[in-house]
Amino acid sequence: MSDESENPIHIEASRARLRRLAKKRWGDDKTNDQLATELAELVLSEFPANTLHSASAGTQLKSEDGENFAVIDLEGTVIGGFDEPQLMNKEGAENLARDTYPTYSDDFIESVIIEWDATQIQFRGKGATFDLDKNNPISDSDLEKAIRKDQEKMTKAKSGLKGRILTILDENNLVIRRGLHKNLDGIIADRDQIRKHRITLRRDWLNDSNNAPRSRNEKGEWETRLNGNYNCEEAGGSNPGLVNFEAPIDYLLLSSLIGLFSDYPPIAVVLCKSQMWMHQTYEEWELLRPSLLNHPEIGVTEGSNLQKVVENMVANQFSVQPIFSKEKVNLGSLELKTLTSFIALNGLKSLPQNIDASQLRDQGLLGNVLPIIDAKVTVDTVSQYLSAGMSTDAIIFEWNSDLHSSILPQDCQGILEDGYHIVTSHDLVAYKMWEEATNS
């Protein structure tokens, strides 16, 4: 999650921040080209399976024997399970669907059959292809060896990534900024201003050269030597009359690169420490942090009694309450301030009896869908988002201990239950309380 793409000021500030962080690590004397090389090497060496590279691409390859059809399980995902689905040809899948759902219509049978194509990915152009759907996936060590072998063969991986990073670091102002325009007038004005500046640079450079001390050439003739290289930016570039558009900035790459330098903890660690502080401070507070959908007081679904939800929000001082469908899809949220205004004007009995997203939306009570972020997003990014006034005072992340436990310190292991977790500004404050109590 990042807001660099929200505002040009944020974009330029983030680019400047990345330059500053890179110079701090590798030296103030490094050029942008050298910094881009260092950053590209860092990304490719520490994160060989990153999908930020432009050559990363997913492909879907059909099984040669045609056995790539599965049948949806109305009580789960697909028949056979997600990890080992029963795959068969189209006719076999239709027979299985009719045996499983004998009273359903032909349209239903057709809709319940899906293609289960193998998802594959290449991390480098023309490099090794990795199957994401194998029941016995490649080990991390073998994956790393294979990707690094790709890197050794494909030097374009580094040069391509370096070029995209250099575009981010570049401080060239002699290009037309990209933006929204109703007509050509603004673009023409920008072009003329930049062209005039470039020509002025070349003119001043020529004048400097013309005023330089003269010397005799091999023939004994007096001549003025140019002071430097006319291709340099100080001389207006190789062609002062040529004005280009700035190269598009890769905001996702920019955000990820800044994250490499972050000293702030991941939001999952912050929530864990917040939970520990609450447990130490309040005797009734459990150490285990339950996930939203496994705890009816902090995660509600459509059909829940709305008045009880509101009473619980008041009792527990919840400023926002996410709402999920029965299929665990985030539908929106309830904000206490919005509910307060509605109840003050219309009375408590005017609230719908049960939570229905459509009805709440019609009455202006359904708030924003809370953003779901990665558990590894750092607390400084979350803090900026919550304080920017762009959303409600909450974000959600999904915790999977099998995938994420390595980012937690030892004293946090086992505290977060698998599933969705909500983080508000209250949790950030509680984390700071824990930090100060620990360091005092």
Architecture blueprint of SSEs:
Layout (H helix, E strand, L loop, with lengths): L7 H19 L5 H15 L10 E5 L7 E3 L18 H11 L5 H7 E3 L2 E5 L6 E3 L8 H14 L2 H14 L15 H26 L4 E2 L5 E2 L27 H9 L7 H15 L18 E2 L4 H11 L3 E5 L5 E6 H11 L10 H6 L9 E2 L5 H9 L7 E5 L1 H4 L14 E5 L1 H15 L1
Parallel strand pairs: 8-9, 11-12
Antiparallel strand pairs: 1-4, 2-3, 4-5, 6-7, 9-10, 12-13
Helix pairs in contact: 1-2, 1-8, 2-6, 9-15
Outline of the structure:
The chain has 15 helices and 13 strands. By secondary structure, the chain is of the alpha+beta class.
Mind explaining what this structure looks like?
With 440 residues, this protein is α+β, with helices and mostly antiparallel strands. It has four domains: 4-60 and 122-169, no CATH class; 63-116, no CATH class; 185-235, no CATH class; 267-439, CBS-domain (Roll), CATH 3.10.580.10. Helix content is 42%, strand content 11%. The protein has helices at residues 8-26, 32-46, 90-100, 106-112, 140-153, 156-169, 185-210, 251-259, 267-281, 306-316, 336-346, 357-362, 379-387, 401-404, 425-439; strands spanning 57-61, 69-71, 113-115, 118-122, 129-131, 215-216, 222-223, 300-301, 320-324, 330-335, 372-373, 395-399, 419-423. Strands 1-4-5 form a three-stranded antiparallel β-sheet, with no helix packed on it. A three-stranded mixed β-sheet has the order 8-9-10. Strand 9 and strand 10 form a beta hairpin. The chain starts with 7 loop residues before the first helix and ends with a helix. Residues 1-6 have low confidence and may be disordered.
